[in-house]
Amino acid sequence: MPSTAAKFVPPVHLPTVESDTKPSLMPTPIPESNCNIVSKLLQGLIQPPQEQTRLNIADPELIKEILNKPDVFQKPLPETGKIIAGGIIFLEGEKWAKHRKIINPAFHLEKLKNMVPAMSLSCSNMIDKLKCMVSSTNEGWYEIDIWPYIEDLTGDLISRTAFGSNYEEGTKIFQLQRDKVKLTLEILKFSFIPGWRYVPTKTNRKVKAIANELHSLLRGIINKRQKALEMGVAIPGNDLLGVLMESNSRINQDHGNKNVGMSVEDIIEECKLFYIAGSETTSSLLVWTMVLLGQHPEWQTQAREEVNRVFGRAEPSYEDLNQLKIEVLRLYPPAPFIVRGSTETVKLGNLTIPKGVHLTLLIGLLHYDPKIWGDDAKEFRPQRFSEGVSNATNIQSSFVPFSAGPRVCIGQNFAMTEAKIALAMILKSFSFELSPSYLHSPFSVVTLTPQFGAPLILRNLESKSVY
């Protein structure tokens, strides 16, 4: 039987510098040595870009003020970010407001209830695969890196919930989006070279080919549904795309102009964003929940007892999902830092921020601040939220896992619903612990992910060897 002592740096510790692989809630920058080599090779050929003035912010009141003024502090997104996805995340002003109004109905709680069966089906399929692997051994347990399975699960979830009857095409879209993200990360290594993404390298050509295929697939699905709408034929209303298109059509009808709402190109970009935001956020939340519960068996047992008490042997229903209380988003926020840029010279607290300064909001440090959360801020204590977020601390703006203000994450309820369904079904089926091979290294890519995977030791609770 495997040892239960996992060799890892627990999440309660802040970053250290004793080793080359440092646990951290911050992204790993490009090694300076790599930049120097390329800079020397290109010396005299290009003018290196000027450094951007940056200011780090960890004060909760200043963070709240920044996030509540989206017109003054906007997202300074790099051009390379548009390779991965477009959509509302890149918009500002009136166009952002229009898109937000059209998209909002897709994430209403009543709509999410209709998506629960599709979410449960995806979770059941993953659990069946894991049970087969566990039962393939005579040991009663099976060691597996759960991270790739969670990534596949969230991709399957978004494919079903976003495209419904077009599930097979949705699965293809997810795979293409995932490939594009990986290739884009390669391109980002050279982002300090102006115009690098336009150079016809092998990677850039692959990204362009994937982008064209993605665009073609999405346009085909959307055009079919658009024609059905124009002919008065009912389109699927239980998936994100269907709700989005119905909302868009309603806006056009209310104004008597089909050009008032989103164009087909706009909808295509929003669909791309569905995949990135819908899968990345949920997979980050799920994997860190399993890591923490694997590290704290007493909380895993308590969570399982709650699941069995609330759900029994039946599939979970939406009304009961909020019974599951987790603290993972505080310890591992999907986006451990948020960047905003000042569009004008502005007063912020007792500071005067010049135009063009980039403000890095250190959400990870905010969530670990003992002055806010107490001496146990670095500990995993789900009971701190037993009476809700508002009673966990005396500073209301100190918990911002999904950003805040007018541009708070539009899909946070969607992500939480997915994660709670998946976690409930996993806890009913398996007990698990961290493998001794687990190496703790949170790494920020699109969201906060385990850089070296999340190897767990699974035991099937339906196996007699468990009892």
UniProtKB/TrEMBL annotation:
Membrane topology: Single-pass membrane protein
Chain segments annotated as coiled-coil in the UniProt record: none
Main location: membrane
Keywords: Heme, Iron, Membrane, Metal-binding, Monooxygenase, Oxidoreductase, Transmembrane, Transmembrane helix
Xref: Pfam families: p450
InterPro entries on file: Cyt_P450, Cyt_P450_CS, Cyt_P450_E_grp-I, Cyt_P450_sf, Cytochrome_P450_Monooxygen
Subcellular localization: Membrane
PANTHER family: CYTOCHROME P450 CYP72A219-LIKE, CYTOCHROME P450 FAMILY MEMBER
Family, per entry: Belongs to the cytochrome P450 family.
UniProt-recorded name of the protein: Cytochrome P450 protein
Annotated organism of origin: Rehmannia glutinosa
